[in-house]
Amino acid sequence: MSNRTFTMIKPDAVRAGNIGNILQMINGAGFRIVAMKYLHISKQQAEKFYEVHAARPFYGELTEFMSSGPIVAAILEKDNAVADFRKLIGATNPAQAEEGTIRKKYAASIGENAVHGSDSDENAAIEGNFFFNGLERF
Ligand code: ATP
Ligand code: MG
């Protein structure tokens, strides 16, 4: 099992001024930051990142949203990182997210849900490699 996951603070949470609050929750839950950057991805880059969802009805909306403003991308480290981070962020739909989760606190809707968290060790590695090279990890 890997001890790393990948996250993005999505454009809605950046616009709402919640970068600091979310990073505080991430650190408070025991995750160490391995790599981090603030950037604005293009629609084309969002389409590449979310390629696995290309057939879904929300693919256009999702990639439009993810390229609508700057994001924070990061690689995080902790024992059992993927599963523990999914627990910290809560359900995809904030209406179903548990109390105290990042999405319960900071997400407005299923489409604009404040944060991304990798769903497997394999995808955590693929997603981290999409944003960071070896010299950008510490
Ligand atoms: P993420 O991958 O961002 O961590 P997730 O793994 O909880 O979220 P996925 O099923 O991977 O959920 O969906 C990816 C993203 O697509 C969601 O976070 C959300 O922004 C968007 N999305 C998912 N389902 C819907 C939907 N029914 N309508 C609109 N957007 C959706
Ligand atoms: Mg997902």
Question: What secondary-structure arrangement, pairings included, does this model have?
Answer:
Elements: E1 4-9, H1 11-15, H2 19-28, E2 32-39, H3 43-49, H4 59-66, E3 71-77, H5 81-89, H6 102-106, E4 115-117, H7 121-131
Antiparallel strand pairs: 1-3, 1-4, 2-3
This protein binds adenosine-5'-triphosphate (ATP) and magnesium ion (MG).
Residues 53, 58, 61-62, 92, 110-111, 113, 116-117, 119 line the site of adenosine-5'-triphosphate (ATP).
Low-confidence stretches: none
The coarse silhouette is globular
**What is the class in the CATH system?**
Alpha Beta
Spatial sequence of strands, sheet with the most strands = 2-3-1-4
Order of helices and strands: EHHEHHEHHEH
Query: Radius of gyration, rounded?
Result: 14 Å
CATH topology: Alpha-Beta Plaits
How can the largest sheet be summarized?
4 strands, antiparallel
Ligands in the structure? Answer: adenosine-5'-triphosphate, magnesium ion
Number of strands: 4
Class by alpha and beta content: alpha+beta
Number of domains: 1
CATH homologous superfamily caption: Nucleoside diphosphate kinase-like domain
Percent of residues in helices comes to 25-40%
Give the termini separation. 20 Å
